[in-house]
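FAQ: What does a ligand-bound record look like?

Like this one, built around nicotinamide-adenine-dinucleotide:
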Amino acid sequence: MVDEAKIIKQAEKIASNVQKSWYETLNPIERSLDYASNNPGFKKALLRFVDVLPALDSNKKIKQAFNEYFDEEDIKEGWGKHIKYAINTLPAWSVGYVLKKGVNMTAQRFMAGFNQSTLLNELHTLSNNGYAFSVDKVGEDVLSAKAADRYADEYTTLIKKLDSFDANQASISIKPTALCARFNPSAPTETINRIYPRLKKIIEAAQEKKLIIYFDMETDQTRNITLSLIKKLLQVTVPNYERLGIVIQSYHTECLSDADNIINWLRNNDKRLHVRLVKGAYWNEERAQAFRRNWPIPVYENKGKTDSMYEKLAHRLVNAYPYVKPAFGSHNIRSLACGTTLARQADIPDQDWEVQMLYGMGRPIQRAVKRCAIPLRLYVPYGKLLPGMGYLVRRLLENTANQSFLQNKIKQGNFNKPDPDSGSASKMTARGYKTIGPRNYSRPHTIEKQSEEYKKQVKETTTTVPVLINGQTIKGDEFDSHNPSYTSQIVGKISHCKKQHIQKALKKTPNQWGASETRADAIEAVGDALQNRRYELSALITRENGKNWTEADADVMEAIDFCYYYAQQARKIKDERNRDVPGEINRYQYRPYGPAAIIAPWNFPLAILTGMTTAALVAGNPVFIKPAMATSTIAWEFVRCLRPHVPDEVVHFLPGSGKQVGERLVKNPTINTVAFTGSRSVGNTIRGIVAQKDETVMTRTVLEMGGKNAIIVGPSADIDKATAGIIESAFGYQGQKCSACSRVIVHKNCADELQKRLRGAAKALSIKPADNPDCDIGPVINNSAKERLEKAKKKARSEGRVVYDGSVPKNIPDGHYVAPLIVKQLSPQSDTMQNELFGPILGITTAESIDQAIKIANNVDYALTGGLYSRMPSVINKVKQQFEVGNLYINRDITGAVVGRQPFGGFKQSGKGTKAGGPDYLKHFMLPKTITENITRKGYPGQE
Ligand code: NAD
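The answer part, i.e. the structure of the complex:
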């Protein structure tokens, strides 16, 4: 057992040695950080400003950015107000100089050098002062193989230069995500294989010098792969090396089982490992990301729980000595004292345990720890200021969160045992519908289940898909649907609906069905049915539609969300509006508009079909479903989920061609609404047919059509983030999303850098069959799409200059694969920049100014989605106002709209401005009716 009194005594001893130097007390940076810790507005502005600063190339812009960020926040008094006032009044040249200098000084405080030679100088100083260290190279996000090579080379050369240090004093810290261009949590084996060759070189170099190599545990998404990686290294690569290290984060809800798992494994295999115990540095990010995805929050939400878990883990690690050599990473005196007391109590020799602290953080505590003769290692980042800024911003965030906390504790002398129930985080909330969220494919059981389901389906026979009319299944002439990844595999044998089937279906159809509550219940039950078959439906989408696992799962997720969301909306709409006045009743109510034709595309084979169908149904209309030919099996499985919950006479399933089935439906006078999602040309054909219709009730059309979506990249953009977002938006599902990015309009000042990064990142994409968990680019839908796209690529190459021209691997199975193409210097009027190509082809053009970029972006027939990467508030505001798109995304990718959160749809030739998954959507399938009744009789108004 730990002796509590000893821990407190140890803490008091460290605290009594803490002395702030005069420099630290007066330093304006310290003061700004301190002020920021108590002023959220100032902190937000400061962090954002520091983040954008390296991208600003003139003093004028620096002053402008500073003013824009700080003006957005309410900073009325104290230090923050003085700074704001000073910057406002100083001339731009001096503002730029002072701010750059200030941020540089801050960077130097947290980073030990900007290159290896400045780093080595600092390491010598540290070493002379008796500090051990672990070096961490910070830099750009690694998005290309070249960047990963650079990262690995940097370490191998550095290791050689660490010769002059004692092996116990020098160590390195590595981020596994920086060792490959595509760190894919759904594909652990392939990711480890990509990391491995680079890592091996580093390990061999380190082994020669007997250096400790720590593997940083980054986020929840990288955790499992990092743990597997270390086991592989210890088992295969360096079985006898005792100087590898990992990190356990005590804020992670699975930290205890991770620690137990690794300790048992070490014991069973008789291996040794350094384990750095930390609290964790991505708390805000982990929480927000999990919340957005509706995943369980992977970190403890109250600080007390993290702190007390830290002590529990410290105990575990100390007890696991000599298999584990513990390092206690923290700046909290109580936590450090706990680790120290435990290690000393267990008589672990000083060279086998230590305390670790971040270079530059809490320097007075670092000196105090040293004075107490506690073995101390500093975690020392180095790297260029510009790419290191991301790191620096996070450090600042932690620093401003912790600094006052540290000081208070020291002042109060409160080193009591942490209370696990204390320090609850403020609850995260969001208005409106809560998405069911995507699957978490970083979890091994999820990966295994998905892969088993796929294999099972491939073994099973092909699905027979009938026509369905009034609950009766009918066989017709069959056509086949194929697996686009393996063209010889037939997925469905589909009956083509005949003219007489359509007539039969239309003949006996009622005009409406069910009470509104019954309908909402029914559609919710359909959502449940889809939920129950989620793995199965995802696997089928991968098979028939060629989506990789995450894309297929997102399709199913969206379908389920549509069911729940529309049921929720229908309940909201159902209550009639009352505007009664004395003597007069005034009611406003919604009724179904009448039978609806649902004509769906193949690219979101489940989600869009489900959305349009359930919206029409929940509003009370019978539906005539005409699925896309290529994905009729998926559509049929949806209908199977639907059938038990709605009467037979209101669901008809009519597979077949657009001309023979779709067009006949549109022309028929029984159809009152056509809900169509598809191409511009077919959408306009439908408009034309409807305009000519000889009918009593005027047919309504809900038309969602194509896009030619652009992302604008401004000079202040975070180029790493822009690269990742563009790659995701342009090549996710092979660019076959209506929301996909097919145009980049980049400011001339950052065009070269962006193009270089895009090339590297595109090169790292793996072209594989869609069922391979490592698939980034799968097949396009069919051979005619492939041929059309190859022609479009030829044209694009002739219109501009090639940035990246990928090729399909030779050994890939027989499927419809098209490699990505990126072309630059395109005229905004070129075919490539004007026409929807619907495949992995990305065109780039440059702009002189943000105004010109917006003009180019708007100069197309479409207005569906658009994006902007910029960190200047004035630019963001301008683009918000002037970019003509239905869905605008800022500083993120432009695909993946979430039901309820980002209602989706465009205008111009992209559609009629309707918004699927939005609060107005159901009303397109409803008829509002106003009823006014005069209740006055003989002057008596009907009420007193
Ligand atoms: P498509 O227009 O070829 O087909 C869509 C549906 O219309 C299919 O079911 C098809 O059989 C049917 N159809 C074809 N001709 C018809 C006719 N004459 N009369 C009635 N129906 C007919 O589109 P697609 O290739 O399946 O899908 C890709 C297109 O859809 C792209 O242009 C994409 O941008 C667009 N899309 C738009 C959105 C959006 O929300 N705006 C969403 C997804 C897809």
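Follow-up question: can I read anything off the structure? Yes, for example: The first strand starts at residue 132 and ends at 137.
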